[in-house]
Design a protein that fits this description.
The protein is mainly β. The chain folds into six domains: 204 residues, no CATH class; 82 residues, Immunoglobulin-like (Sandwich); 65 residues, Immunoglobulins (Immunoglobulin-like), CATH 2.60.40; 64 residues, no CATH class; 75 residues, Immunoglobulin-like, CATH 2.60.40; 90 residues, Immunoglobulin-like.
Protein backbone atom coordinates (compact mmCIF):
# COMPACT_ATOMS: atom_id res chain seq x y z
CA UNK A 1 0.00 0.00 0.00
CA UNK A 2 2.88 2.36 0.84
CA UNK A 3 4.48 1.68 -2.56
CA UNK A 4 1.31 2.74 -4.33
CA UNK A 5 1.16 5.97 -2.32
CA UNK A 6 4.78 6.76 -3.15
CA UNK A 7 4.27 6.23 -6.87
CA UNK A 8 1.30 8.58 -6.79
CA UNK A 9 3.45 11.12 -4.98
CA UNK A 10 6.12 10.80 -7.66
CA UNK A 11 3.52 11.28 -10.38
CA UNK A 12 2.22 14.38 -8.62
CA UNK A 13 5.67 15.92 -8.43
CA UNK A 14 6.47 15.17 -12.07
CA UNK A 15 3.14 16.57 -13.32
CA UNK A 16 3.35 19.71 -11.19
CA UNK A 17 7.08 20.33 -11.46
CA UNK A 18 6.56 23.97 -12.52
CA UNK A 19 4.53 24.66 -9.38
CA UNK A 20 7.58 24.10 -7.18
CA UNK A 21 10.05 25.99 -9.34
CA UNK A 22 9.89 28.98 -7.00
CA UNK A 23 11.59 26.79 -4.34
CA UNK A 24 14.48 25.84 -6.59
CA UNK A 25 17.76 27.74 -6.84
CA UNK A 26 18.22 30.23 -9.64
CA UNK A 27 21.56 28.62 -10.53
CA UNK A 28 21.69 25.17 -12.12
CA UNK A 29 22.16 23.45 -8.72
CA UNK A 30 23.14 24.11 -5.07
CA UNK A 31 24.81 21.78 -2.55
CA UNK A 32 22.63 21.55 0.58
CA UNK A 33 24.42 19.17 2.98
CA UNK A 34 27.21 16.62 3.47
CA UNK A 35 27.02 13.50 5.64
CA UNK A 36 30.71 13.76 6.59
CA UNK A 37 30.96 10.99 9.22
CA UNK A 38 28.68 8.23 7.92
CA UNK A 39 27.69 5.18 9.94
CA UNK A 40 28.90 1.78 8.77
CA UNK A 41 32.15 0.27 7.52
CA UNK A 42 33.75 0.96 5.20
CA UNK A 43 32.64 4.50 5.84
CA UNK A 44 33.81 5.68 2.42
CA UNK A 45 31.04 3.67 0.71
CA UNK A 46 28.22 5.21 2.78
CA UNK A 47 28.84 9.00 2.81
CA UNK A 48 26.25 11.20 1.13
CA UNK A 49 25.90 14.66 -0.41
CA UNK A 50 22.49 16.33 -0.85
CA UNK A 51 21.93 18.96 -3.55
CA UNK A 52 18.95 20.55 -5.29
CA UNK A 53 18.69 21.05 -9.05
CA UNK A 54 17.79 24.47 -10.43
CA UNK A 55 15.26 25.45 -13.11
CA UNK A 56 16.63 23.07 -15.77
CA UNK A 57 16.97 19.25 -15.79
CA UNK A 58 20.55 17.93 -15.58
CA UNK A 59 22.17 14.77 -16.95
CA UNK A 60 23.79 12.75 -14.12
CA UNK A 61 26.46 11.44 -16.50
CA UNK A 62 27.77 15.02 -16.86
CA UNK A 63 28.49 15.26 -13.11
CA UNK A 64 32.12 15.33 -11.99
CA UNK A 65 33.51 16.14 -8.59
CA UNK A 66 36.60 16.93 -6.56
CA UNK A 67 36.41 15.26 -3.14
CA UNK A 68 38.51 16.51 -0.22
CA UNK A 69 39.99 12.97 -0.35
CA UNK A 70 39.90 10.18 -2.99
CA UNK A 71 39.57 10.47 -6.80
CA UNK A 72 36.29 10.98 -8.66
CA UNK A 73 34.97 7.64 -10.05
CA UNK A 74 32.06 8.85 -12.17
CA UNK A 75 28.34 8.11 -11.85
CA UNK A 76 26.99 4.56 -12.32
CA UNK A 77 23.34 3.50 -12.78
CA UNK A 78 22.86 -0.25 -13.10
CA UNK A 79 21.30 -3.32 -11.48
CA UNK A 80 23.33 -2.82 -8.30
CA UNK A 81 22.18 0.78 -7.81
CA UNK A 82 18.58 -0.25 -8.57
CA UNK A 83 18.83 -2.92 -5.85
CA UNK A 84 20.15 -0.30 -3.38
CA UNK A 85 17.21 2.02 -4.09
CA UNK A 86 14.69 -0.84 -3.74
CA UNK A 87 16.23 -1.86 -0.40
CA UNK A 88 16.07 1.72 0.90
CA UNK A 89 12.46 2.20 -0.21
CA UNK A 90 11.48 -0.90 1.76
CA UNK A 91 12.68 0.81 4.98
CA UNK A 92 10.80 4.13 4.57
CA UNK A 93 8.09 4.53 7.23
CA UNK A 94 6.79 7.93 6.15
CA UNK A 95 5.34 8.90 2.76
CA UNK A 96 8.64 9.55 1.03
CA UNK A 97 10.08 7.70 -1.96
CA UNK A 98 13.48 7.33 -3.67
CA UNK A 99 13.93 7.29 -7.46
CA UNK A 100 16.87 6.88 -9.80
CA UNK A 101 16.92 9.52 -12.58
CA UNK A 102 14.99 8.10 -15.59
CA UNK A 103 17.55 7.66 -18.34
CA UNK A 104 20.03 9.48 -16.10
CA UNK A 105 18.12 12.79 -16.41
CA UNK A 106 17.53 14.59 -13.09
CA UNK A 107 14.35 16.71 -13.27
CA UNK A 108 14.40 20.45 -12.59
CA UNK A 109 13.82 21.31 -8.93
CA UNK A 110 14.66 17.76 -7.79
CA UNK A 111 16.35 17.02 -4.48
CA UNK A 112 19.25 14.63 -5.10
CA UNK A 113 21.27 12.38 -2.79
CA UNK A 114 24.73 11.54 -4.17
CA UNK A 115 26.04 8.34 -2.46
CA UNK A 116 29.82 7.93 -2.53
CA UNK A 117 29.71 4.30 -3.73
CA UNK A 118 27.36 1.88 -5.50
CA UNK A 119 28.65 -0.58 -2.88
CA UNK A 120 26.73 1.26 -0.13
CA UNK A 121 25.00 -0.73 2.63
CA UNK A 122 21.32 0.38 2.80
CA UNK A 123 21.07 -0.63 6.45
CA UNK A 124 23.58 1.85 7.90
CA UNK A 125 22.08 5.34 7.48
CA UNK A 126 18.30 5.41 7.92
CA UNK A 127 15.82 6.83 5.40
CA UNK A 128 12.87 5.77 7.62
CA UNK A 129 11.66 9.36 8.18
CA UNK A 130 11.78 10.38 4.51
CA UNK A 131 8.60 12.33 3.78
CA UNK A 132 9.21 13.58 0.25
CA UNK A 133 10.44 12.28 -3.09
CA UNK A 134 14.14 12.42 -3.81
CA UNK A 135 16.42 11.22 -6.59
CA UNK A 136 19.48 9.12 -5.78
CA UNK A 137 22.69 8.77 -7.82
CA UNK A 138 25.77 6.70 -7.02
CA UNK A 139 29.50 7.16 -7.54
CA UNK A 140 30.96 4.10 -9.26
CA UNK A 141 32.66 1.45 -7.13
CA UNK A 142 36.34 2.00 -6.30
CA UNK A 143 36.69 4.21 -3.21
CA UNK A 144 36.25 2.49 0.16
CA UNK A 145 38.14 4.95 2.34
CA UNK A 146 36.49 8.18 3.46
CA UNK A 147 35.97 11.08 1.05
CA UNK A 148 35.76 13.68 3.86
CA UNK A 149 37.91 14.48 6.92
CA UNK A 150 36.09 13.52 10.15
CA UNK A 151 36.52 15.57 13.32
CA UNK A 152 40.18 16.25 14.10
CA UNK A 153 41.28 19.10 16.34
CA UNK A 154 43.11 21.80 14.36
CA UNK A 155 42.64 20.04 10.99
CA UNK A 156 41.37 23.19 9.26
CA UNK A 157 38.97 23.51 6.32
CA UNK A 158 37.99 21.02 3.58
CA UNK A 159 36.25 21.82 0.28
CA UNK A 160 33.87 19.75 -1.91
CA UNK A 161 33.40 20.83 -5.53
CA UNK A 162 30.78 19.38 -7.92
CA UNK A 163 30.46 20.28 -11.61
CA UNK A 164 27.93 19.53 -14.31
CA UNK A 165 30.31 19.70 -17.25
CA UNK A 166 29.48 22.52 -19.60
CA UNK A 167 26.91 24.04 -17.22
CA UNK A 168 28.05 25.12 -13.75
CA UNK A 169 30.02 24.33 -10.58
CA UNK A 170 29.16 24.59 -6.91
CA UNK A 171 31.68 24.30 -4.07
CA UNK A 172 31.18 24.27 -0.30
CA UNK A 173 33.69 24.37 2.55
CA UNK A 174 33.43 23.09 6.10
CA UNK A 175 35.78 23.38 9.10
CA UNK A 176 36.82 19.95 10.39
CA UNK A 177 37.04 20.84 14.10
CA UNK A 178 33.56 22.45 14.01
CA UNK A 179 31.90 19.02 13.48
CA UNK A 180 29.88 17.78 16.48
CA UNK A 181 28.87 14.44 17.99
CA UNK A 182 25.31 13.42 18.90
CA UNK A 183 25.63 15.22 22.26
CA UNK A 184 26.42 18.51 20.58
CA UNK A 185 30.11 18.44 21.54
CA UNK A 186 32.95 19.24 19.15
CA UNK A 187 34.19 15.66 18.94
CA UNK A 188 34.23 12.69 16.56
CA UNK A 189 30.87 10.95 16.17
CA UNK A 190 28.97 8.99 13.52
CA UNK A 191 26.30 11.13 11.90
CA UNK A 192 28.31 14.40 11.81
CA UNK A 193 26.62 16.48 9.11
CA UNK A 194 27.15 19.96 7.61
CA UNK A 195 24.15 21.89 6.23
CA UNK A 196 24.71 24.75 3.76
CA UNK A 197 22.46 27.60 2.67
CA UNK A 198 22.59 28.78 -0.95
CA UNK A 199 25.31 31.29 -0.01
CA UNK A 200 27.50 28.43 1.26
CA UNK A 201 27.22 29.29 4.97
CA UNK A 202 27.74 26.13 7.05
CA UNK A 203 25.71 24.85 10.02
CA UNK A 204 26.98 21.82 11.96
CA UNK A 205 24.59 19.15 13.25
CA UNK A 206 24.53 15.45 14.12
CA UNK A 207 21.28 13.46 13.66
CA UNK A 208 23.04 10.14 14.27
CA UNK A 209 22.82 7.25 11.82
CA UNK A 210 20.30 9.06 9.64
CA UNK A 211 20.53 10.05 6.00
CA UNK A 212 20.88 13.80 5.24
CA UNK A 213 17.16 14.37 4.55
CA UNK A 214 14.33 15.86 6.60
CA UNK A 215 16.79 17.08 9.20
CA UNK A 216 15.06 18.55 12.18
CA UNK A 217 16.32 21.97 13.25
CA UNK A 218 15.29 24.42 15.91
CA UNK A 219 15.65 28.20 16.20
CA UNK A 220 16.56 29.12 19.78
CA UNK A 221 16.29 32.48 21.54
CA UNK A 222 16.53 33.97 25.03
CA UNK A 223 15.37 37.26 26.50
CA UNK A 224 18.93 37.92 27.67
CA UNK A 225 22.16 36.14 26.68
CA UNK A 226 24.53 38.37 28.72
CA UNK A 227 23.74 37.83 32.40
CA UNK A 228 25.25 37.65 35.86
CA UNK A 229 25.76 34.25 37.53
CA UNK A 230 22.52 33.15 39.25
CA UNK A 231 20.20 35.18 36.96
CA UNK A 232 16.92 33.70 35.61
CA UNK A 233 16.22 33.97 31.86
CA UNK A 234 13.39 32.88 29.52
CA UNK A 235 14.15 30.46 26.66
CA UNK A 236 12.16 29.75 23.49
CA UNK A 237 12.51 27.12 20.73
CA UNK A 238 10.82 26.98 17.30
CA UNK A 239 11.12 23.59 15.53
CA UNK A 240 11.49 23.45 11.75
CA UNK A 241 9.91 20.11 10.78
CA UNK A 242 7.25 17.72 12.02
CA UNK A 243 8.73 14.21 11.94
CA UNK A 244 9.89 13.82 15.54
CA UNK A 245 8.94 12.01 18.74
CA UNK A 246 9.81 14.56 21.44
CA UNK A 247 12.20 17.36 22.42
CA UNK A 248 14.05 18.62 25.49
CA UNK A 249 16.45 21.27 26.86
CA UNK A 250 19.83 20.26 28.31
CA UNK A 251 23.31 21.60 29.00
CA UNK A 252 24.69 24.30 31.25
CA UNK A 253 25.28 24.24 35.00
CA UNK A 254 21.86 25.70 35.89
CA UNK A 255 18.28 24.35 36.20
CA UNK A 256 15.48 24.38 33.58
CA UNK A 257 11.96 25.20 34.74
CA UNK A 258 10.36 22.76 32.25
CA UNK A 259 13.01 21.00 30.15
CA UNK A 260 10.39 19.21 28.03
CA UNK A 261 8.67 22.42 26.85
CA UNK A 262 9.39 24.64 23.88
CA UNK A 263 9.24 27.72 26.13
CA UNK A 264 10.86 27.47 29.56
CA UNK A 265 13.05 29.27 32.08
CA UNK A 266 16.69 28.73 32.92
CA UNK A 267 18.04 29.47 36.39
CA UNK A 268 21.79 29.92 35.93
CA UNK A 269 24.20 28.64 38.56
CA UNK A 270 25.84 31.12 40.90
CA UNK A 271 29.20 29.48 40.11
CA UNK A 272 28.94 29.96 36.33
CA UNK A 273 31.55 32.04 34.54
CA UNK A 274 32.70 32.78 31.02
CA UNK A 275 30.04 31.23 28.78
CA UNK A 276 27.77 28.18 28.58
CA UNK A 277 26.15 26.37 25.66
CA UNK A 278 22.49 25.48 26.20
CA UNK A 279 21.27 22.67 23.92
CA UNK A 280 17.81 21.88 22.54
CA UNK A 281 17.51 18.25 21.46
CA UNK A 282 14.91 16.89 19.04
CA UNK A 283 14.38 13.11 19.07
CA UNK A 284 13.50 11.90 15.56
CA UNK A 285 11.36 8.97 14.45
CA UNK A 286 14.44 6.70 14.54
CA UNK A 287 15.32 7.75 18.11
CA UNK A 288 18.22 9.83 16.77
CA UNK A 289 18.72 13.18 18.49
CA UNK A 290 19.52 16.46 16.70
CA UNK A 291 20.92 19.31 18.78
CA UNK A 292 20.90 23.09 18.33
CA UNK A 293 22.70 25.34 20.78
CA UNK A 294 22.40 28.79 22.32
CA UNK A 295 25.39 30.51 23.94
CA UNK A 296 24.98 32.37 27.27
CA UNK A 297 27.74 34.75 28.49
CA UNK A 298 28.29 35.58 32.17
CA UNK A 299 29.63 38.74 33.72
CA UNK A 300 32.40 38.10 36.24
CA UNK A 301 31.70 41.17 38.31
CA UNK A 302 33.71 42.93 35.63
CA UNK A 303 36.69 42.35 33.39
CA UNK A 304 38.76 45.46 33.99
CA UNK A 305 41.70 46.65 31.94
CA UNK A 306 44.41 49.26 32.34
CA UNK A 307 45.64 51.47 29.52
CA UNK A 308 48.96 53.33 29.65
CA UNK A 309 49.42 56.88 28.42
CA UNK A 310 53.09 57.28 27.64
CA UNK A 311 55.16 54.11 28.03
CA UNK A 312 55.11 51.29 30.55
CA UNK A 313 58.91 51.43 30.44
CA UNK A 314 60.43 54.93 30.79
CA UNK A 315 63.70 56.51 31.83
CA UNK A 316 64.44 57.61 35.35
CA UNK A 317 62.66 60.96 36.06
CA UNK A 318 59.83 60.42 33.55
CA UNK A 319 56.26 59.25 34.35
CA UNK A 320 53.23 57.44 32.88
CA UNK A 321 49.44 57.73 33.32
CA UNK A 322 47.46 54.54 34.12
CA UNK A 323 43.73 54.56 33.31
CA UNK A 324 41.31 51.78 34.41
CA UNK A 325 38.11 50.91 32.53
CA UNK A 326 34.97 48.73 32.56
CA UNK A 327 33.74 49.73 36.00
CA UNK A 328 31.81 52.25 38.05
CA UNK A 329 34.19 52.45 41.05
CA UNK A 330 37.98 52.11 41.35
CA UNK A 331 40.48 51.38 44.15
CA UNK A 332 44.21 51.45 43.30
CA UNK A 333 47.01 49.77 45.22
CA UNK A 334 48.35 53.30 45.86
CA UNK A 335 45.14 54.15 47.78
CA UNK A 336 43.83 56.46 45.05
CA UNK A 337 40.17 56.13 43.96
CA UNK A 338 40.25 58.08 40.71
CA UNK A 339 39.94 56.34 37.34
CA UNK A 340 43.45 57.52 36.34
CA UNK A 341 46.68 57.85 38.34
CA UNK A 342 50.20 59.12 37.52
CA UNK A 343 53.16 56.86 38.42
CA UNK A 344 56.88 57.70 38.66
CA UNK A 345 58.56 54.51 39.98
CA UNK A 346 58.93 50.90 38.88
CA UNK A 347 56.25 48.64 40.38
CA UNK A 348 53.23 46.49 39.54
CA UNK A 349 50.15 48.66 40.04
CA UNK A 350 46.80 47.00 40.79
CA UNK A 351 43.26 48.36 40.57
CA UNK A 352 40.05 46.80 41.92
CA UNK A 353 37.11 47.66 39.64
CA UNK A 354 33.45 47.03 40.53
CA UNK A 355 30.22 47.05 38.48
CA UNK A 356 26.65 45.75 38.77
CA UNK A 357 27.70 42.03 38.81
CA UNK A 358 30.57 42.39 41.26
CA UNK A 359 34.22 43.26 40.95
CA UNK A 360 37.47 42.35 39.27
CA UNK A 361 41.16 43.17 39.38
CA UNK A 362 43.68 44.27 36.78
CA UNK A 363 47.42 44.89 37.04
CA UNK A 364 50.01 46.79 35.05
CA UNK A 365 53.77 46.43 35.44
CA UNK A 366 55.86 49.60 35.14
CA UNK A 367 59.61 49.44 34.62
CA UNK A 368 62.07 52.31 34.87
CA UNK A 369 64.99 52.13 32.47
CA UNK A 370 68.44 53.00 33.86
CA UNK A 371 71.25 54.38 31.70
CA UNK A 372 72.71 51.34 29.90
CA UNK A 373 76.00 49.83 31.15
CA UNK A 374 77.52 47.62 28.44
CA UNK A 375 79.40 44.41 29.30
CA UNK A 376 80.68 41.34 27.41
CA UNK A 377 80.59 37.86 28.92
CA UNK A 378 81.31 34.28 27.90
CA UNK A 379 83.85 32.94 25.50
CA UNK A 380 87.60 32.76 26.04
CA UNK A 381 90.48 35.22 25.66
CA UNK A 382 92.59 32.69 23.70
CA UNK A 383 91.50 30.90 20.54
CA UNK A 384 93.18 27.58 19.81
CA UNK A 385 93.52 26.31 16.19
CA UNK A 386 90.11 25.50 14.70
CA UNK A 387 88.34 26.88 17.76
CA UNK A 388 85.59 29.51 17.95
CA UNK A 389 84.04 31.30 20.91
CA UNK A 390 80.78 33.15 21.61
CA UNK A 391 80.70 36.64 23.08
CA UNK A 392 77.45 37.80 24.71
CA UNK A 393 76.49 41.40 25.39
CA UNK A 394 74.28 42.72 28.18
CA UNK A 395 73.23 46.03 29.68
CA UNK A 396 70.99 47.36 26.88
CA UNK A 397 67.94 46.73 24.75
CA UNK A 398 69.78 46.76 21.40
CA UNK A 399 73.39 46.03 20.47
CA UNK A 400 75.85 46.88 17.70
CA UNK A 401 79.13 44.92 17.44
CA UNK A 402 82.38 46.07 15.87
CA UNK A 403 83.89 44.80 13.69
CA UNK A 404 81.08 43.18 11.73
CA UNK A 405 78.10 45.46 12.50
CA UNK A 406 76.09 42.54 13.96
CA UNK A 407 72.98 43.56 15.93
CA UNK A 408 72.57 40.19 17.68
CA UNK A 409 72.98 39.80 21.44
CA UNK A 410 75.75 37.23 20.84
CA UNK A 411 78.39 36.79 18.15
CA UNK A 412 80.60 33.79 17.40
CA UNK A 413 84.22 34.56 16.42
CA UNK A 414 87.08 32.40 15.16
CA UNK A 415 89.84 35.01 14.79
CA UNK A 416 91.86 37.06 17.27
CA UNK A 417 91.36 40.79 17.71
CA UNK A 418 89.58 43.44 19.76
CA UNK A 419 85.79 43.24 19.74
CA UNK A 420 83.52 46.06 20.93
CA UNK A 421 79.78 46.31 21.51
CA UNK A 422 77.57 49.38 21.87
CA UNK A 423 74.60 48.68 24.19
CA UNK A 424 71.66 51.06 23.79
CA UNK A 425 68.18 51.65 25.15
CA UNK A 426 65.81 54.56 25.06
CA UNK A 427 67.88 56.28 27.77
CA UNK A 428 71.29 56.26 26.03
CA UNK A 429 74.20 53.97 25.08
CA UNK A 430 77.50 52.56 26.41
CA UNK A 431 80.52 50.70 24.93
CA UNK A 432 82.45 47.65 26.20
CA UNK A 433 85.44 45.85 24.59
CA UNK A 434 87.34 42.58 24.92
CA UNK A 435 90.63 41.42 23.31
CA UNK A 436 90.90 37.82 22.07
CA UNK A 437 94.32 36.29 21.23
CA UNK A 438 94.60 33.62 18.51
CA UNK A 439 97.16 30.81 18.95
CA UNK A 440 99.85 30.55 16.25
CA UNK A 441 100.21 26.79 16.71
CA UNK A 442 100.16 24.89 13.40
CA UNK A 443 100.95 21.15 13.34
CA UNK A 444 101.91 19.57 10.00
CA UNK A 445 104.23 16.83 8.74
CA UNK A 446 105.05 14.73 5.66
CA UNK A 447 105.99 11.06 5.14
CA UNK A 448 108.45 9.92 2.49
CA UNK A 449 106.26 6.88 1.73
CA UNK A 450 102.60 6.20 2.39
CA UNK A 451 102.18 2.71 0.92
CA UNK A 452 104.16 -0.48 0.28
CA UNK A 453 104.57 -4.09 1.35
CA UNK A 454 105.65 -5.14 4.84
CA UNK A 455 108.08 -4.45 6.35
CA UNK A 456 107.60 -0.83 5.30
CA UNK A 457 110.10 1.78 6.56
CA UNK A 458 108.77 5.36 6.63
CA UNK A 459 110.66 8.57 7.46
CA UNK A 460 108.57 11.44 8.91
CA UNK A 461 109.46 15.15 8.64
CA UNK A 462 107.90 17.48 11.25
CA UNK A 463 107.10 20.90 9.67
CA UNK A 464 105.10 22.27 12.64
CA UNK A 465 105.64 25.65 14.34
CA UNK A 466 104.30 27.60 17.30
CA UNK A 467 104.41 24.90 19.95
CA UNK A 468 106.28 22.18 21.86
CA UNK A 469 106.38 19.33 22.70
CA UNK A 470 105.28 17.24 19.73
CA UNK A 471 104.15 13.63 20.21
CA UNK A 472 103.98 10.94 17.50
CA UNK A 473 101.48 8.04 17.51
CA UNK A 474 102.07 5.55 14.69
CA UNK A 475 98.68 3.85 14.96
CA UNK A 476 100.06 0.30 15.09
CA UNK A 477 100.24 -0.12 18.86
CA UNK A 478 103.92 0.76 19.12
CA UNK A 479 105.05 3.29 21.78
CA UNK A 480 104.69 7.02 21.09
CA UNK A 481 107.75 9.19 20.64
CA UNK A 482 108.67 12.87 20.93
CA UNK A 483 111.50 12.70 18.39
CA UNK A 484 111.35 15.59 15.96
CA UNK A 485 111.71 13.61 12.71
CA UNK A 486 111.28 9.91 13.55
CA UNK A 487 111.66 6.81 11.40
CA UNK A 488 109.23 3.92 11.87
CA UNK A 489 108.94 0.37 10.46
CA UNK A 490 105.44 -1.08 9.86
CA UNK A 491 105.74 -4.88 10.04
CA UNK A 492 102.17 -6.04 9.31
CA UNK A 493 99.72 -5.51 6.49
CA UNK A 494 97.00 -2.96 7.21
CA UNK A 495 96.04 0.71 7.25
CA UNK A 496 97.57 2.90 9.95
CA UNK A 497 96.74 6.50 10.86
CA UNK A 498 99.87 8.31 12.04
CA UNK A 499 99.05 11.26 14.29
CA UNK A 500 101.27 14.16 15.36
CA UNK A 501 100.03 16.17 18.38
CA UNK A 502 101.48 19.56 19.32
CA UNK A 503 100.80 21.91 22.26
CA UNK A 504 101.67 25.57 22.83
CA UNK A 505 102.23 27.63 25.98
CA UNK A 506 98.52 28.57 26.17
CA UNK A 507 97.53 24.93 26.40
CA UNK A 508 96.20 24.86 22.83
CA UNK A 509 96.46 21.54 21.02
CA UNK A 510 96.63 20.92 17.27
CA UNK A 511 96.95 17.65 15.36
CA UNK A 512 97.87 16.39 11.89
CA UNK A 513 97.41 12.92 10.41
CA UNK A 514 98.71 10.83 7.52
CA UNK A 515 97.39 7.41 6.49
CA UNK A 516 100.00 4.67 5.88
CA UNK A 517 98.87 1.58 3.94
CA UNK A 518 100.92 -1.63 4.20
CA UNK A 519 99.76 -3.80 1.30
CA UNK A 520 99.75 -7.54 0.78
CA UNK A 521 101.77 -8.46 -2.35
CA UNK A 522 100.80 -12.10 -2.22
CA UNK A 523 99.81 -13.41 -5.67
CA UNK A 524 97.43 -16.36 -5.91
CA UNK A 525 96.45 -18.23 -9.09
CA UNK A 526 93.78 -20.95 -9.29
CA UNK A 527 93.52 -22.94 -12.57
CA UNK A 528 90.10 -23.60 -14.11
CA UNK A 529 91.00 -26.99 -15.65
CA UNK A 530 93.25 -29.98 -14.84
CA UNK A 531 93.92 -33.41 -16.43
CA UNK A 532 94.54 -36.18 -13.86
CA UNK A 533 95.66 -38.75 -16.49
CA UNK A 534 99.01 -39.68 -14.88
CA UNK A 535 101.03 -38.12 -17.67
CA UNK A 536 102.93 -36.00 -15.19
CA UNK A 537 101.41 -32.79 -16.48
CA UNK A 538 98.62 -30.89 -14.75
CA UNK A 539 97.64 -34.05 -12.81
CA UNK A 540 96.61 -32.09 -9.66
CA UNK A 541 94.26 -29.23 -8.91
CA UNK A 542 95.83 -26.76 -6.42
CA UNK A 543 96.55 -23.05 -5.95
CA UNK A 544 99.77 -21.35 -7.12
CA UNK A 545 101.32 -18.44 -5.19
CA UNK A 546 104.49 -16.39 -4.98
CA UNK A 547 104.43 -17.13 -1.23
CA UNK A 548 105.35 -20.54 0.12
CA UNK A 549 104.07 -20.08 3.67
CA UNK A 550 100.35 -20.20 2.95
CA UNK A 551 98.04 -22.78 4.59
CA UNK A 552 95.38 -24.22 2.28
CA UNK A 553 92.17 -26.08 3.23
CA UNK A 554 90.04 -27.08 0.21
CA UNK A 555 86.67 -28.79 -0.49
CA UNK A 556 85.38 -30.14 -3.84
CA UNK A 557 81.64 -30.48 -4.69
CA UNK A 558 79.94 -32.21 -7.62
CA UNK A 559 77.20 -30.53 -9.66
CA UNK A 560 74.53 -31.74 -7.22
CA UNK A 561 76.26 -29.89 -4.36
CA UNK A 562 77.61 -33.01 -2.64
CA UNK A 563 81.09 -32.79 -1.16
CA UNK A 564 83.27 -35.50 -2.81
CA UNK A 565 86.85 -34.59 -1.85
CA UNK A 566 88.93 -32.48 0.56
CA UNK A 567 92.58 -31.73 1.13
CA UNK A 568 94.77 -29.65 3.44
CA UNK A 569 98.23 -28.35 2.57
CA UNK A 570 99.63 -29.64 5.88
CA UNK A 571 98.89 -33.26 4.85
CA UNK A 572 98.66 -32.97 1.07
CA UNK A 573 100.78 -30.35 -0.65
CA UNK A 574 99.98 -31.59 -4.19
CA UNK A 575 96.23 -30.89 -4.16
CA UNK A 576 93.29 -32.83 -5.57
CA UNK A 577 94.17 -35.80 -7.76
CA UNK A 578 90.71 -36.13 -9.36
CA UNK A 579 89.54 -38.85 -7.03
CA UNK A 580 86.84 -38.84 -4.37
CA UNK A 581 87.85 -39.23 -0.74
CA UNK A 582 86.90 -42.90 -1.13
CA UNK A 583 89.57 -43.35 -3.81
CA UNK A 584 87.20 -43.59 -6.78
CA UNK A 585 88.07 -41.61 -9.86
CA UNK A 586 85.68 -38.69 -10.44
CA UNK A 587 83.98 -38.44 -13.81
CA UNK A 588 84.89 -35.80 -16.29
CA UNK A 589 82.92 -32.58 -15.77
CA UNK A 590 82.76 -29.30 -13.89
CA UNK A 591 83.27 -29.26 -10.10
CA UNK A 592 82.86 -26.48 -7.56
CA UNK A 593 85.61 -25.67 -5.07
CA UNK A 594 85.76 -23.69 -1.82
CA UNK A 595 89.35 -22.94 -0.77
CA UNK A 596 90.29 -21.31 2.56
CA UNK A 597 93.75 -19.70 2.53
CA UNK A 598 95.42 -18.71 5.81
CA UNK A 599 98.19 -16.10 5.49
CA UNK A 600 101.21 -15.96 7.82
CA UNK A 601 99.72 -13.00 9.73
CA UNK A 602 96.61 -15.06 10.54
CA UNK A 603 94.41 -13.41 7.95
CA UNK A 604 92.01 -15.92 6.29
CA UNK A 605 91.01 -15.50 2.65
CA UNK A 606 88.32 -17.62 0.96
CA UNK A 607 88.23 -18.43 -2.75
CA UNK A 608 85.43 -20.22 -4.57
CA UNK A 609 84.72 -21.08 -8.17
CA UNK A 610 84.60 -23.99 -10.61
CA UNK A 611 87.20 -26.26 -12.24
CA UNK A 612 86.84 -28.62 -15.22
CA UNK A 613 88.21 -32.17 -14.87
CA UNK A 614 89.35 -33.63 -18.21
CA UNK A 615 90.99 -37.04 -18.50
Amino acid sequence: MRLKLNLLTVLFIVLFQKNISAQTPSTCFEIQSILVDACGLPEGENEMVRFIVGPNPMNASNLTGTWPANPWRGICQDAQTAANVAALNSTIQACGYILEPPGGIIPAGATVILVTSADMNPSFNSFAALSDTIYMIFQCVGNSTGHFRNYTSGAGARTLSLTFTGFCTDAVTYVVDSLIDQNGNHAAGDGATVVFDFAGNATYTNPGCQAPVNQLRATLSADNTNICPGDLINLSAVINGTNFLSYFWTGGAGVYGSPGSLNTTYQSASSSSGSENLFFGIIGLCNDTTYDSLSISFGSGTTPSISVTGSSSFCQGDSAILTASNGSAYMWSTGETTQSITVYTADTYTVNVTDICGGGTASQAITVQPVPVASISGGTTVLCPGQSTTLTASGGDTYLWSPGNSTNVSITISAGGTYSVTASNSCGSDIASVTVTASLLNVTFVADSVTGPAPLTVNFNNNSFGGAPYTWNFGDGSPTTTNTDPQHIFTSNGTYIVTLVGQDSNGCIDTAQVTITVVDDTQITIPNVFTPNADGKNDYFNIFSNKSNLSVDAKIFNRWGREIATWNSSTNSKGWDGKSDGGKEAAEGVYVYIISITHPDGRVEEKNGSVSLIR
